[in-house]
Each structure stands twice: as C-alpha cells, then as structure tokens.
C-alpha cells in the first residue's frame, strides 16, 4: 500500500500545483483522482464480504482476499473516475471560458 500512498501524495501535489497556477479544470481532474484513491478503503470494506464469501480458512487466506479486495476497489474507483473525467471533458471543453487568465467551467441550465 506504499505505492498507493505515494501515488496519492503525487496526485494531491499535482492538484495543488494546478490550483496555484489557476488551471482549475486540471485541478478538478487531479482532485477527482485523489478522491477516488481516498475512497478506496470505504469501497474495500463494502466489497470484502463478497470476496470473503469464497471462504476463509486461514489467516493467509484472509489476507489474500483482503488485499485482493483492496486492489480491486482501487481499480474500480479509478476506472469510474477516469470514465467520469472523460465523459465530462468534452462537455466542459465546449463550455470553458477564460477570464483574466483563469480557466473556469461555465454551467448551462
């Protein structure tokens, strides 16, 4: 899980750097990715009982299923967020407006 921690810090840094550069569209993308990583444990706790239904007969089996659920939940969260970013990117690109050097997304009703 050290890899996940390092990736989370990296993405958080990219998001903050984008915000400081006033690139709020890129900031939004990075913060969505950070949220996906941060929600990993919650998703893991939700999915783990389905993995545990396969049967736990030893501590090593528990740990294997627990870590499988962890990586699966992380992959699921990232896949959903990346889908969401790509889905909304084309809409937001058409609606992006630049005001005083700051790129902002304009919502239309």
Question: How would you characterize the overall build of this protein?
Answer:
With 109 residues, the chain is mainly α. A hairpin with a 2-residue loop joins strand 1 and strand 2 (102-105). The protein has one domain. The chain has helices at residues 2-20, 24-38, 40-52, 59-95; strands spanning 96-99, 102-105. Helix 1 runs antiparallel to helix 2 (24-38), helix 2 (24-38) runs antiparallel to helix 4 (59-95) and helix 3 (40-52) packs across helix 4. A two-stranded antiparallel ribbon has the order 1-2. The mean pLDDT is 85. It has 4 helices and 2 strands. The chain is 77% helix and 7% strand.
Layout of helices and strands:
Layout: H1 2-20, H2 24-38, H3 40-52, H4 59-95, E1 96-99, E2 102-105
Antiparallel strand pairs: 1-2
Helix pairs in contact: 1-2, 2-4, 3-4
């Amino acid at each position: 899980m050290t890899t996940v921690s390092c990736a989370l810090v990296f993405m958080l840094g990219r998001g903050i750097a984008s915000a400081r550069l006033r690139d709020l569209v890129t900031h939004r993308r990075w913060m969505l990715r950070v949220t996906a990583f941060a929600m990993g444990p919650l998703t893991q706790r939700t999915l783990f009982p389905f993995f545990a239904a396969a049967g736990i007969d030893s501590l090593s089996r528990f740990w294997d299923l627990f870590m499988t659920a962890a990586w699966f939940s992380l992959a699921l969260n990232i896949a959903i967020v990346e889908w969401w970013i790509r889905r909304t990117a084309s809409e937001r690109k058409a609606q992006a407006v630049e005001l005083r050097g700051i790129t902002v997304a304009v919502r239309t009703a």
